[in-house]
Design a protein that fits this description.
The structure is a homodimer.
Chain A (H helix, E strand, L loop, with lengths): L19 H16 L6 H7 L6 H6 L2 H31 L6 H16 L9 H10 L3 H25 L5 H21 L14 H20 L1 H4 L2
Helix pairs in contact in A: 1-2, 1-4, 1-6, 4-5, 4-7, 5-6, 5-7, 5-9, 6-8, 7-8, 8-9
The structure holds a DNA duplex.
DNA sequence: TCATAATTCAAACGTTTGTATTAATCATAC
DNA sequence: GTATGATTAATACAAACGTTTGAATTATGA
């Protein structure tokens, strides 16, 4: 019935509209980002994607597997670009420890770049990611762990080189503060500040702000131990 | 039937166990913090609280009103303590602008203090708060807005005095990065770092870390505009 | 053209959800 | 005690959920 879907479609009258499967992926990503994983039902998705109710179960198996597919599609390129950028930062340092700002930028920039505007308007996946980092769903947690574990390992090592005075636990700590700030800001980007006018974000300066904020935090906390406690 | 619940109970054989209503509040707070608002059903709560299924609807009206009651119970004292601490910081400055660290500590310390250990083990409300800040539930958003709007207004003003070079939008921005870092860290506190041993947190040094991280971020970003963009 | 596989479709399944209902129990005031 | 209002209890309800099913439809390869 649906076993050999290695080649879901050979070649036929395409161009009319995207395949059902990818249409569902796009629509589901947007709805999940806007309203949350549990709030959005498979009926919401299939209706918005102009597909049949059974389409999600047919193409993905279950709702959870659809969610996993959405994360796979975004997280794999994001984390690949992170590792590439980290390699470049280490290479640029030429034997010496990499610059703290370069390491942080290697981590932050891909999240912002892929988090926004993949032909869908706005921040979409960035918001989805922010929400799901906070959610207690254990299966989702396991999925994210698989994606992030190798990335975290390499960035931890690089950060310990860039900040030799910090222990592993302290780097772990500060990195989590950075991740929190990053994703919270991605989520808040389209909220209006106290003064009504909508906030405008320019990609490059946004990344620089985040990097500067995080880098300062890393350096400041390096001396907190000698100041207090 | 249940209209005049001004005096839910006069005075009788208490001490055996807490009232049903407050028992539900405690249990629901813990379950919501651990598993999320949508995942936990009213049946989960009433069973864990050893109450009848109808108890939530009887005492609170609806599940959403129970959630609102949970937030009211914690947020009112937290934000009151924030405002008191802010007053103290301004008073301590004696006419001059308050110290940045004092303002940030006035905001952060109550969240950590009330977020953890109100006779329940662990971080409980801190986690719940972190999750719900990210959630797209519009009614919840409205509830949080009511609680935070006056607090945000006063802290914005104080931060603009402490950092006179920053515009209102820039303060808004940085404050959100700080809030993101704060709540993400509260959520992550009981996760284990890469090295297996569970992380131990000491209240005072934890607060100082967060304050130092945020203050450094505020100061660093003050000069980002002249550096780039 | 015909057989075969892939996809779509409409309908139904069994759970679980939050809430409402109605009667029983309890404590208090007269 | 007895009447009154507050609480608890057991059950019922309609709606929504994710998933399954089997037939109808479409596209593909011989």
């Amino acid at each position: 019935m649906k076993d050999q879907q290695a080649q879901p479609k050979k070649l036929a009258g395409e161009v009319d509209r995207a395949e059902t499967k990818s249409r569902i992926l796009d629509v589901a990503e947007q709805l999940f980002a806007k309203h949350g994983l549990e709030t959005v039902s498979v009926r919401d998705i299939t209706q918005a994607a102009e597909a049949n109710l059974g389409a999600i179960n047919y193409h993905f198996g279950t709702k959870k597997q659809l969610i996993a597919a959405i994360f796979d599609r975004r997280l794999i390129p994001i984390n690949q670009e992170r590792l590439d950028a980290l390699d470049a930062a280490i290479r640029a340092a030429g034997g010496k420890p990499p610059r703290l700002e370069d390491v942080l930028e290697a981590f932050i920039r891909p999240a912002v770049r892929f988090g926004m505007d993949p032909k869908l308007g706005g921040i979409t996946f960035g918001k989805l990611m922010g929400r799901c980092l906070m959610e207690p769903n254990p299966e989702l947690e396991a999925l994210l762990h698989i994606h992030f574990e190798p990335v975290a390992r390499r960035f931890d090592a690089a950060l310990m080189q860039a900040m030799p005075h910090l222990t592993r636990v302290e780097v772990f700590w500060r990195m989590h503060l950075t991740v929190g700030a990053l994703h919270h800001s991605l989520l808040m980007l389209d909220k209006t500040p106290p003064g009504r006018p909508k906030i405008v974000i320019e990609f490059e300066s946004y990344v620089q702000r985040l990097v500067a904020f995080a880098a300062a935090g890393f350096r400041a906390l390096a001396s907190v131990k000698s100041r207090k406690s």
